Amino acid sequence: MGKMANGTASEAAQSGMAVEVFDLTVAYRDKPVLWDIDLAVPQGLLMAIVGPNGAGKTTLMKAILGLVKSAAGEVRIFGKPYSMVRSRVGYVPQRGSVDWDFPTTVIDVVMMGAYARLGWLKRPGRNEHAEALSALDRVGMAEYADRQISQLSGGQQQRVFLARALMQDAMLYLMDEPFQGVDATTERAIVDLLRDMRKAGKTVIVVHHDLQTVGEYFDWVTLLNVRRIASGQVSEVFTSENLRLAYGGKIGFLGEEELAQARNTSLNGERLRDEVGL
Amino acid sequence: MSGEFLRLLVTDYTLRTVTLGAALLGLTSGTLGAFAVLRRQALLGDAVAHATLPGIALAFLLTLSKAPLILLLGAAVSGWLGTLLVLAVVRNTRIREDAALGLILSVFFGLGLVLLTRIQKMPLASQAGLDSFLFGQAATLMVGDVQAMALLAAPVLLLLVLLWKEWKLISFDPEYGATLGYRVRLLDTVMTSMIVVAIVIGLQTVGVVLMSAMIVAPAAAARQWTDRLSVMVGLSAFFGALAGVCGAILSSSTSQLPTGPSIVVIISLIVAFSLAFAPNRGLVWDWVRQARNRSRLRLDTVLGNMMLLARQHEEADYGHKAAAIGALSGGRIGIEARLRELRREGFVEMDRQGDWHLTAKGVARCEMIVKKWEP
Prior knowledge:
The structure holds 2 protein chains of 2 kinds. Helix content of chain A is 37%, strand content 22%. By secondary structure, chain A is α/β, with parallel strands linked by helices.
């Protein structure tokens, strides 16, 4: 697969790929977290990244964004290095990655999405305020604009993060577990938003936990467990064989306990167990 | 007394210098401390403060001068070195941050004490007063000291205001800031350096041992009163300055009272008051709210049980003895008082036999409670 990396940059620009990853390897100390990942995500679709805990889903996302150092490999976004197309990429981190007791308001957090456009020194003004309000409106949070962020529920926090990303008006969005622990209203709001984005020709990559909804919400899926197990259209690659490889594939190296844990990683362990036949 | 103090402030040169210096140090450490606390770097402040001591001693040994700018420069370099070492230890070894902080703090502080003791024994006259860096001595502040402090504080405060949105961003969500293209590593380093400067500014007045209190305490107190970053930073600066001025004056007007501990006692009082009485976050209001909720819950339980009792009879106003209601509602103790409270609110009435029954308003409240608990 290593050959793929050579001389593909210009081809990629024409190939209409939103994200391409070549031979990406990430290691913490000497333990590989991602191993020789190749990935090509066409533009204009919704893709889920699934895999057991510790599979490197978040790390893959952060490596694409240059937030973690890769030991080897290359990432191209719209055929270019990330640093050149930064303004076209929006990131929605895990909700738990920040301190929600930070002394600030909802609208202030959302306006952070405009900081890149503003550049150094300049402060957000009336335009950004109006824009932030309309972003909040899109996620059904307009009336929370002046709330202190510590008063929000988990689902509301998630929607604030989404509104902040909307401010960037990007073409590619990377979202880390937006559905994690949210209420039904928020789940609905996120799904609607994802579909709106797809309609507008945007590409969205989502780290996802709930295997049951992969087919319903997404067009494309990548199964990950340190290595890339499979990547492609949901109908083609979301098979019990690939799921077994992703979730049960560590059989040879794992004890009974870890295996049980791997089986129960997904929210619908029941169905997974049936599908995988463990 | 305050009138006399004001007169002294205008006329007394020393007092004016001391007050100005203490206000300046409180302002700077309060401002930067707010960010240190929000970024969870409060402990780093303590390590930095202790790590400045060998720098002060070495600066003196090298120059044999007690010029404030030279000593503070030495302090800054050594404090900064300590910070870098902490970060290097965390990054390159398996020692965790808390252990690394403790390690650097004690190693540097120990080295500083050794050097300071050595200096005390040197046959020089000029070293006198150097040991006041341990616990701080505002009374020795000269105009030159205050000028040096202002010289260090001005660029730091200016930078803080200019890059306000950047500091907010990297304090709240640094990774997101990095994806926006901000050089978060650089901003991080600059912010940490500004905290180092804020600490250095306070060293002569508060001393290395207690300086970290001036970083943490004003910010902790300010956080209690507000949910806005700008207000928090402003309040923190104000609390810092207030404690600085009060403590400096207290120690200047009392013999043998070191300034650092005086300032720290005063800022601690501000913190204690804020923890207890700040609206929303104050513990006292928490207790009041909880007590109110508990008592409401108890009253509602009584109402609910009276509803149950009433359902067993045709007449809506069929009365029951307080004891019977009490037995259902978790004990007879206090049941009379609860019923009287409910009567005052118009939810229950007592008939001529001394039996209690719900009013129409009481029935309505019961129905409302039930509705609230049903999805």
